[in-house]
Amino acid sequence: MKFYLKHKDIGAIDPKLLFGFSWLTLLLGTFKNVIVSKWKMKISLKWIIIFLIAVLVAGCVSKENISETVKTSMQETLSTNTDFKDYNMTVIDVTVLKKNNGEYKGIASVEYEGTLHDISIDIIVDGENILWEAPSGSFSFIMQKEMQKLFQ
């Protein structure tokens, strides 16, 4: 039985040329291919690891991202919460400092009737969510201003 491979450009190939390799040549060729493919795989794996590290680093929440997120959330809360919305407060800036892993301390500058008030806030970040909390009494300046208005 004769085996012939046909390709449109090369025509028929003699089986002796195709199968005339020694087993040693075949094994060395296979070994070379395995080494080359492992080398290519190592290079590919290296680039995948570099890519994943870059994604993780880029995905890490920076203090600037935390600051902007807290500022937006805080403004939304002050504008929509029934306890605060009538006072027309504006969050001007939020400064964030890292405390521990995932815990931050912040100071929010809030404008109320033309005066800036610094509010201490606690921030917790878990990688997906950012939670901020102002301690009780942080907005007592509102009550003070409202009391002043009553006595004037």
Main features:
152 residues; alpha+beta; Nuclear Transport Factor 2, Chain: A; 2 domains; four-stranded antiparallel beta sheet; two-stranded antiparallel ribbon; 6 strands; 47% helix; disordered N terminus
How are the elements arranged and paired?
Blueprint lengths: L4 E3 L3 E3 L1 H5 L3 H37 L3 H18 L9 E11 L2 E10 L2 E11 L4 E4 L6 H12 L1
Antiparallel strand pairs: 1-2, 3-4, 4-5, 5-6
CATH architecture of the largest domain: Roll
What count of domains describes the coordinates? 2
The number of helical elements comes to: 4
Main sheet strand line-up: 3-4-5-6
Rg computed from alpha carbons, rounded to a whole number of angstroms: 34 Å
Query: Which topology of the largest domain does CATH recognise?
Result: Nuclear Transport Factor 2, Chain: A
| Major sheet | 4 strands, antiparallel
Fraction of residues in helices? 40-55%
Could you walk me through the main structural features you see in this protein, from its secondary elements to its overall organization?
The chain is of the alpha+beta class and about 150 residues long. The chain has 2 domains: about 5-60; about 65-150, Nuclear Transport Factor 2, Chain: A. Helices cover about 45% and strands about 30% of the residues. The termini are far apart.
